[in-house]
Amino acid sequence: MEKEKAQDYMNPKKEETIDDGEDILKENSEVEKKIENEEKSPDEKIAELQEKIVRQYAEMENQRRRYEKEKDDAYEYGGFSFAKETLNLIDNLERSKVTLENDENLKSSEGFEKIISHLDIIYKDMISILKKNNIHPIESVGKKLDPNLHQAMMEIEDENSENGIILQEIQKGFMLKDRLLRPSLVGVAKKIEKKEQNAPENTENKDEKK
């Protein structure tokens, strides 16, 4: 027993040595900080405080600018979601017009032309209202496909158009000022080589020569 006590006294537990080491390190770091502060001159302390003030002022200025930008965006684009939902009315109006024009029974009725003309008037009025609120339709047909404005839904083989030229507008796209409200859904040209018109004649001539 006496030997075990002597060994414990000679070899303290590891946990105790670790804790003591951490305490010594903390004390040393605090002492070093105190020495550093004591070694700094009043001018150096003033310069350090000034630097801290400048950094804090810069952070406050950045926060102010972010707030101003968020406020401006809320004012400029606050109706973004509402404007996007409004476009559904235009889509439904266009679909209704196409449905009526494809109905052969309605085409022969007396009031068909009046119905179509009234739908056209309503459509123009809606586009005019949107433009007054800085919502403008995107030009598509005949333009080169722009991934930022258009979304290609299909390719249309064409002999006279270059690849990527928009030949068909499936759904009209709109811009809210300089921000995309929704892209135009379009069909783009896929150029194919023109077939030789005189191909049958050439084959006949070859057969005659043989």
Describe, in plain words, how this protein is organized in 3D.
The radius of gyration is 39 Å and the shape is elongated. 61% of the residues lie in helices and 16% in strands. The protein has 3 domains: 2-39; 78-133; 137-195, Nucleotide Exchange Factor Grpe, Chain A, domain 2. The protein is α+β, with helices and mostly antiparallel strands. Helix 4 (80-101) packs antiparallel against helix 6 (112-132). The strands form 2 sheets. A 3-stranded antiparallel β-sheet has the order 1-4-5. A 3-stranded mixed β-sheet has the order 2-6-3, with no helix packed on it.
How many strand elements?
6
Q: How many distinct domains?
A: 3
Average predicted local confidence, pLDDT: 78
Going by CATH, the homologous superfamily of the largest domain would be Head domain of nucleotide exchange factor GrpE
Query: Quaternary arrangement of the chains shown?
Result: single chain
Low-confidence stretches: 13-18
Task: Give the overall shape.
Answer: elongated
Task: Note the main attributes of this structure.
3 domains; alpha+beta; 3-stranded mixed sheet; Nucleotide Exchange Factor Grpe, Chain A, domain 2; about 210 residues; about 60% helix
SSE order and pairing:
Elements: H1 2-10, H2 14-39, H3 42-77, H4 80-101, H5 104-107, H6 112-132, E1 135-137, E2 150-158, E3 166-171, E4 174-176, E5 179-182, E6 184-191, H7 199-209
Parallel strand pairs: 2-6
Antiparallel strand pairs: 1-4, 3-6, 4-5
Helix pairs in contact: 4-6
